[in-house]
Amino acid sequence: MSRVVRETDFPTLTLLQRGKVRDMYDLKDAYLMVATDRMSAFDVIMPDPIPDKGTVLTQISLYWFDIMASLIDNHVITADVSRYPESCRPYAADLAGRSILVKKARPLPIECVVRGYITGSGWKSYRKDGSVCGIRLPDGLVESDRLPEPIFTPSTKEELGKHDINIDFDEMVNRIGAPLARKLKDLSLAIYTKGAQIAEEKGILIADTKFEFGLVDDEVILIDEVLTPDSSRFWPKASYVPGGAQQSFDKQYLRDYLLSLDWDQTPPGPTLPQTVIDNTRAKYVEALTLLSGDSHGL
């Protein structure tokens, strides 16, 4: 039976913030990060949640955090609810599977985007002037083409409800300094390359993705989520054909539905038909199962 958590309600815990998807609680020595079933598209939170989505995102992130530990440390303390502070125990049933106890990191103000294929805003930019975020690409690419090598295309990290803005690497250097910018670029490309290779072996092409990093005692660590259907474009390898849009395991399915409506992409979002909710959920669960080999009972 699917469990739906659109908004957490833990009155004895200190709510730090509600993001598009995650609710953060301050437990003094750590943060409690809870992935809800809220669905955002075009930076607008939809009125209808996607059942179990928060559990899928959490389990996929945990899978990748473990795999990427050889490349970079991360903010995970534990996802075992029985090891959470006593203050969390009354909410154990709601926290199980969809929450992580994390280190208190200082987030860096850059979205670290890596693109392995030309699609989305990158495709629009390429059609305009043959480049993406100041990076010149080969002539003759078609939509969804695999790039000769992955490219790093950072963006700003804007407040909830505002669109992130693509920037070039020089602007990233201006904002956070050259040494840190180079480190984030190198880490992002290494994580993407490793993840894309593993995912492809399991039948998923990761077209592009975004990472977030933070500082703990001046050490760069990986935070938030990693290579999930919310932060990435997941395409089925079996049906991949460059030259147009691709089928997906991510929320592109939902975006395509929304683009078919007479909606101006401003709040409030439209009510979603049950078939769209069910199909979106199925795509998320399928991605989790393919990657980890475990549906986690969903």
TrEMBL record:
Keyword annotations of the record: ATP-binding, Ligase, Nucleotide-binding, Purine biosynthesis
Broad class of enzyme this protein falls into: ligase
Superkingdom of origin: Bacteria
Molecular functions per Gene Ontology: ATP binding; phosphoribosylaminoimidazolesuccinocarboxamide synthase activity
Gene3D superfamilies registered for this protein in UniProt: ATP-grasp fold, B domain, Phosphorylase Kinase, domain 1
Domain SAICAR synthetase/ADE2 N-terminal residues, every copy: 16-266
Pathway connected to this protein: Purine metabolism; IMP biosynthesis via de novo pathway; 5-amino-1-(5-phospho-D-ribosyl)imidazole-4-carboxamide from 5-amino-1-(5-phospho-D-ribosyl)imidazole-4-carboxylate: step 1/2
GO biological process: 'de novo' IMP biosynthetic process
EC number: 6.3.2.6
Catalytic activity line of the entry: 5-amino-1-(5-phospho-D-ribosyl)imidazole-4-carboxylate + L-aspartate + ATP = (2S)-2-[5-amino-1-(5-phospho-beta-D-ribosyl)imidazole-4-carboxamido]succinate + ADP + phosphate + 2 H(+)
Cellular-component GO terms for this entry: cytoplasm
Family per record: Belongs to the SAICAR synthetase family.
Name by which UniProt lists this protein: Phosphoribosylaminoimidazole-succinocarboxamide synthase
Species assigned in the record: Desulfosarcina ovata subsp. ovata
